[in-house]
């Protein structure tokens, strides 16, 4: 069974400025500071922020679901402002998912505004998934 979730957020910043944060490693540094209740910690394990970069992502203590997962940046498109990361170990894979991928797109709207589109694409191994947080909280 395959599925996806998507969230869009409009900002009054130019797409290039938003991409400065979302396109590399800065997002993993800022999210724990700004949203510790969603992702309290992100460890940078290897890579320079490009394709192949590996992060260890921690989830809040006491939350339903996994404690951590390891993800790899699988696509970085600096021209079209697209970033994809795939979970490769632990986390949602341990809960019954075959595939779990995050995708971020920064879309220029006008000179000083842009749209942040975050989505999750997944494929389940079974129709029953172990206890986990609602997927909607993961689409920032």
List keywords for this structure.
7-stranded antiparallel beta sheet; mainly beta; 2 helices; 7 strands; globular; Bet_v_I/MLP; alkaloid metabolism; Bet v I/Major latex protein domain-containing protein; signaling receptor activity
Give the full name of the CATH homologous superfamily.
Answer: START domain
The secondary structure category is mainly beta
- Please give the alpha-carbon distance between the first and last residues: 23 Å
What is the second-level CATH architecture?
2-Layer Sandwich
Give the total of beta strands. 7
- Average pLDDT works out at 90
Order of helices and strands: EHHEEEEEE
Low-pLDDT runs: none
User: How many strands, what sense, and barrel or not for the largest sheet?
Assistant: 7 strands, antiparallel
CATH topology: Alpha-D-Glucose-1,6-Bisphosphate, Chain A, domain 4
Q: Given the C-alpha coordinates, what overall shape results?
A: globular
Name of the CATH first level? Alpha Beta
Structural overview:
- The protein has 140 residues and is mainly beta.
- It has a single domain, classed as 2-Layer Sandwich (Alpha-D-Glucose-1,6-Bisphosphate, Chain A, domain 4).
- 12% of the residues lie in helices and 47% in strands.
- The protein has helices at residues 15-22, 26-34; strands spanning 2-11, 41-46, 54-58, 68-77, 82-90, 97-110, 113-124.
- The protein has a seven-stranded antiparallel β-sheet.
- A hairpin with a 7-residue loop joins strand 2 (41-46) and strand 3.
- The longest helix has 9 residues, at 26-34.
- It is globular, with a radius of gyration of 15 Å.
- The model has no long low-confidence stretch (mean pLDDT 90).
- It is found in: Nucleus.
- Residues 3-127 form the Bet v I/Major latex protein domain.
């Amino acid at each position: 069974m395959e599925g996806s979730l998507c969230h869009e957020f409009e900002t009054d910043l130019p797409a290039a400025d938003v991409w400065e944060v979302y396109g590399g490693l800065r997002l993993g540094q800022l999210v724990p500071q700004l949203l510790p209740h969603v992702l309290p910690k992100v460890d940078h394990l290897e890579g320079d922020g490009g394709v192949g970069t590996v992060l260890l992502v921690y989830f809040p203590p006491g939350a339903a679901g996994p404690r951590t997962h390891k993800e790899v940046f699988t696509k970085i498109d600096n021209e079209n402002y697209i970033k994809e990361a795939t979970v490769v170990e632990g986390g949602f894979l341990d809960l019954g998912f075959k595939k779990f991928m995050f995708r971020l797109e920064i879309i220029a709207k006008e000179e000083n505004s842009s749209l942040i589109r975050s989505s999750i694409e997944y494929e389940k191994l079974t129709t029953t998934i172990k206890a986990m947080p609602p997927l909607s909280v993961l689409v920032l």
